[in-house]
Amino acid sequence: MNITIVCDVLGKPNNGTSVAAYNLINHLKTQGHNVTVVCCDADKEGEQGFRIVPTLNLGPIINAALARNEVVPAKADREILEDAIKGADVVHLLMPFPLSWKAVKICEQYGIPMTASFHVQAENFTCHIGMMKSNFATREVYKYFYKKVYDHCTLTHYPTEFIKNDFESNIKKHVPSRVISNGVSESFFEPAPADVIEKQRAKHKDKFTIVVVGRFSSEKAQQVLIKAVAKSKYKDKIHLILAGEGPKRRHYKNLVRKNGVDCEMRFFDHEELKEVLNAADLYVHTAYVELESIACLEAIVTGLVPIICNSERSAARFFAQDDRCLYRKWDSEDLKNKIEYFMDNPKELEACKKKYKTEANVSRLGECMNKMEEMLTEAAGMREKEA
């Protein structure tokens, strides 16, 4: 098939949406499809299969806010988009933003079926305008997303039932869709070598190691974990790893220094993250806005017990097997107590690890990408039937 993928934001594979995009692009190419990617990433200029559009200028204030969050949105260039789309069997949209809006109009002009992934929660947008906690803003954003993109698509890809129900309850409409996890890479299912694990542990002087993975941004709320460790009676025995990067790095560094917490903060590539997770003792998932959380699933399949923020806006809370693995949103005291429970009861921690390792219902990346390919094939086939 000829498949065009429209990416309003692509960038580096250092966040869930970008990783999901690259995984899909690479899978489709390995399956022999002719894949054209439209994005605004200047570093992709000249690469086979990429069509580069300009970046979107939203004015100095909004541009600065987006830059702080390392978001570079694409500007819709009709000529480039039309050239990338008009020969496609199906067009897949990654985000409900201006580049995709223009792609919708071009696809409808040429009668080309569209699919779209649901990678953006309303809060990922409203956090930039200070309205992240507004239910009204959430509803209006979702209605706008539906009007501009999802109402025009043959099929919509939801990573979880949670986000499907959340979106459709807000817009009061049913959307033809497929629920397909973004999937966990095969490598996380295999343990790291014992010598590698020991080397990682030696770096931390055999302290109890707690890991949290995610962008340093408002909705990820890593500050709750830093404060919990700072309050703990085991503070001097804990090594904290904040794996990621993002606009709140300076704030977190200041918080760590102010509270005297032993904390490592940096971005880890795929292989090193696997080693870090294999060597850790506990995983904490602090995000209170999350439509799937592959990072949490990666930790679980390596055998780590997760303690998860119990937020109604997060799909990750459904991964918890009991209340010992949930803490109250924003409550660093409750999180501290949950951490100390497992440190006080190492046998319970080991039993919990075995339970998660054997009972976790986690989708493998390859299986998920096959399902995504089937969805695109199904959408392309609908055009043939209509013709």
Any overview of this molecule?
By secondary structure, this protein is of the alpha/beta class. The protein is 44% helix and 15% strand. The chain has 15 helices and 13 strands. The strands form 2 sheets. Strands 3-2-1-4-5-6-7 form a 7-stranded parallel sheet, with helices on both faces. Helix 9 links the parallel strand 8 (208-213) and strand 9. The longest helix is centred in the C-terminal third of the chain and has 22 residues, at 365-386. The two termini are 17 Å apart.
Describe the structure concisely.
This protein is an alpha/beta fold and 387 residues long. The protein contains 15 helices and 13 strands. The model has no long low-confidence stretch (mean pLDDT 92).
* Count of distinct structural domains: 2
Spatial arrangement of strands, main beta sheet: 3-2-1-4-5-6-7
Termini gap? 17 Å
Structural class, by secondary structure, is alpha/beta
* Low-confidence regions: none
Report the top-level CATH class of the largest domain. Alpha Beta
Which architecture name of the largest domain does CATH use? 3-Layer(aba) Sandwich
Helix percent reads: 40-55%
Largest sheet data: 7 strands, parallel
Spatial extent as radius of gyration: 21 Å
Shape: globular
Q: Determine the CATH superfamily of the largest domain.
A: Glycogen Phosphorylase B
Would you report the number of β strands? Answer: 13
Taking all residues together, what is the mean pLDDT?
92
Count every helix, treating DSSP H or I runs of 4 or more residues as helices: 15
CATH topology of the largest domain: Rossmann fold
Reading the helices and strands in chain order gives: EHEEHHEHEHHEHEHEHEHEHEHEEHHH
> Beta-strand percentage?
5-15%
